[in-house]
Amino acid sequence: VQLQASGGGLVQPGGSLRLSCAASGSILRTNGMAWYRQAPGKQRELVASISSGGRTNYADSVKGRFTISRDNAKNTVYLQMNSLKPEDTAVYYCNADIGRTFYWGQGTQVTVSS
Predict the structure, then answer these.
(1) How far is the C-alpha of 64 from the C-alpha of 60, rounded, in Å?
(2) Checking DSSP bridges between strand 108-112 and strand 9-11, what pairing results, if any?
(3) Are the CB atoms for 80 and 26 separated by under 8 Å?
(4) Over the stretch 81-107, which tens digit does the pLDDT of each residue have?
(5) If you count Cβ atoms within 10 Å of the first and of the last residue's Cβ in the chain, which end, N or C, has fewer?
(6) DSSP collapsed to 3 states, the chain
(7) Which residues have CB under 8 Å from 111's CB, separation 6+?
């Protein structure tokens, strides 16, 4: 099983980006999926998660600005990020519980700067 993340880049404050993460390989069932981020010198933190049934959870710092969603048929999770701030700058990692094993994507850089 592999997770392939994409969609990062450089954006100005107030801008938007959409991250995608697709799982591939021998997948019978994908349970929870999530996005984490790690800024330089900081620990990795949970940004948002979504259950197989669509229940979502967000870090307080991104509530109202970020939206996590998933396409179960494609084994893909998305993170729509709006009203981006410089403090959102980090490497973003996707994570998926597949068959009770947790997998990580390779990370995608998001830089918010003018």
Answers:
(1) 9
(2) parallel
(3) no
(4) 999 999 999 999 999 998 889 999 999
(5) C
(6) CEEEEECCEEECCCCCEEEEEEEECCCCCEEEEEEEEECCCCCCEEEEEECCCCCEEECHHHCCCEEEEEEHHHCEEEEEECCCCHHHCEEEEEEEEECCEEEECCCEEEEECC
(7) 9, 10, 11, 89
